[in-house]
Write a structure and sequence with these properties.
Strand content: 15-25%
CATH superfamily: Beta Polymerase, domain 2
Strand order of the largest sheet: 1-2-5-4-3
Order of helices and strands: HHEHEHEEEHHHH
Number of helices: 8
Number of strands: 5
Radius of gyration: 17 Å
Number of domains: 1
Largest sheet: 5 strands, mixed
Helix content: 40-55%
């Protein structure tokens, strides 16, 4: 895939995300249970994979997550949902919070929306600001290229995550995909 084709694909994926957000009214719905923040690749216009990351901040994340889950189930707007408690059942490389994973599709594209319920979004906002402050057209192209290559090579997002790619390109100045593979193998 050429750089232009990757950019075009990225734009199409973000447009699909917009469709999901609009048709489900998800941000408004989540706003009933705290303050929703879209983070990750959508927030930075670096989408390649069909997934969205949202954090809902509240004073009582567990209560908010359970109530939001019940409402989403009742509304029947997503065909599949999963719930995770990573406060009691901590996991490496996962925030200490609660998660609802929503699964849907747009056309033939399967989507996953991770909705985290946390007390704060400060770390994530700081990370986004850092990435945006270093963003150039060249860096954006390199990040999207690496995301494409990770996907093309069937590398799990848990092996080489989007934040790992951002850090490699921006902080470590990695230029070649084989360098990224060595870094995370």
């Amino acid at each position: 895939m050429t750089t232009e084709e990757i950019k075009k694909y990225s734009k199409r994926i973000k447009e699909q995300a917009d469709v999901i957000l609009k048709e489900t009214n998800l941000m408004s719905l989540l706003g009933e249970f705290g303050t929703p923040h879209i983070i990750g690749s959508y927030a930075m216009d670096l989408m390649y994979n069909p997934d969205l990351d949202i954090i809902v901040t509240s004073k009582d994340p567990r209560k908010s997550s359970v109530e939001a889950l019940a409402k989403i189930v009742e509304m029947r707007i997503f065909p599949k949902l999963e719930y995770g408690d990573f406060v009691k059942f901590k996991r490496e490389k996962r925030p200490e919070g609660y998660i609802i994973v929503l699964k849907t599709s747009v056309g033939d594209t399967e989507w996953e929306i991770e909705v985290w319920f946390l007390p704060s979004v400060e770390k994530e906002e700081k990370d986004i600001a850092h990435i945006r402050s270093h963003m150039t057209p060249e860096i954006k192209s390199k990040i999207l290229e690496f995301k494409y290559l990770v996907s093309k090579n069937n590398i799990s997002k848990h092996s080489i995550s989007s934040p790992a790619i951002y850090k490699a390109v921006i902080d470590r100045k990695i230029e070649h995909f084989d360098e990224l593979l060595k870094l995370y193998s």
